[in-house]
């Protein structure tokens, strides 16, 4: 089945998550000012505004940071996953900006905090997952980490265009600004240090375990967290890039393990905030000595049930309260903070299917950015733009119906196929990305069509896949994966042709049928039909998988911090919290009739279930053990084996 892109993300688990953080004035969400190295800091307005990316709804929500009351809803690109507040303005009509990385749209949205409208949409690289602005030194630049193609896009905010693209050594998933440098957390156990003036790599920190997150403290030292729950402090001799090379100072093991890392400086006390995604807690640590001294654990707060991962925590510089985005719980948790006496003081429910991954604070005070060099010409102020929502399509591999069906949103009990493409043999798989619809028949033959389907569509490529057909999946780079029911998982890379052959074979799975993927960490989930288990492969899929006993292997789908498996034999859909380990069990079970196919509509979070008896059943958010179908449609449906939705 075609996974939902928004999912992300516990990469986030994957811990490759997109771990953002912030500090006395600076972090992946931008910098809040303060300190002799910073530009003059304007006085904030009395009430700060909290921005929340609602990744599952493709929008950003503006909230009053005191009451949690909504102020504005701003529609952005697909799967917004990271934000950065930039107080420096290039135009009085725009004012301060919120920059948003849209991971599923390969774009960045620029939001004016004066009007709460999108004033620019900027194409960047593949799968942007982190973003940082230049508030420390006002060079008119925004950096974007593109996890899908191992690059950084460098945006000129005077022209709202990409002025340079830099290749990184590994998959970048977090950007953290210091003074004249950017720390880049990468998937190859490495943190690279970028000189933000010349945009060249000037140093590398190499560790022996995967990086979970990075923070830069007020002294421009680096705190690096690894996935084994260990913090490493690297000190430098200067306050900016001239202090390289950095030297390791000390390590500290976190009691609740790794998770998104933040750091802030309130009243001279450096506070570390670590959200444990596997345990649903937030750990607060305080400096007990001079900068670089030992830290002590102040408190551990249970924010969510175990496994409902808190994704990111941000501290308000106005109140010192901490705001936690809970992707698994569709909520914001507020922690009242006084050192040693932290406690949860409120939880704000968000819209169903919101899936929040990041929070950022903004105030209406602004500082004019210095004009660019005389050779640069500032472009006219862009007019506020709104991007109309694309019309969604649902694709159904219709099994013994020997065809693939396309349905056009909105979906309802009266939905009927808008396009039918006859294949001629049983159809076992269908997947869709922004360019193509891929179809696989029971003999393993794969057909590639342009998306969306047109009446009387003919394939632009067709080639022999595995001997036995199975489910299909596109990743964020356009690679196509298919199960083989016995020979691992095959990957096919674009461009596709009639002579396409596998670019990779992923081994370690004895009976691969269904597939799902977390699009940020690129963790691959494989339904091992013969062994009644889900096999979990970490990117780049070269090691042995983690296996989880589960009968829910007919179809897999990810949404937020959850994985769903269709268990047709038990008339059940098993919901698992992410990340998964060898002892994972369902967090809850939804009763459904003969479920063989699963797909999420990212516009509202509705789960669509293919009932092998001949219907598509819709389950609305919020999902839970008591969920029942909201409606069904049967027009055209014979045997729904796989469903894919293109939003």
TrEMBL record:
Record SUPFAM superfamilies: C-terminal (heme d1) domain of cytochrome cd1-nitrite reductase (SSF51004), YWTD domain (SSF63825)
Family matches, as InterPro entries: Haem_d1_sf, Host-pathogen_enzymatic-act, WD40/YVTN_repeat-like_dom_sf, YVTN_b-propeller_repeat
NCBIfam families noted in UniProt: beta_rpt_yvtn
UniProt xrefs under PANTHER family: DIHYDRO-HEME D1 DEHYDROGENASE, PROTEIN NIRF
Name assigned to this protein: Uncharacterized protein
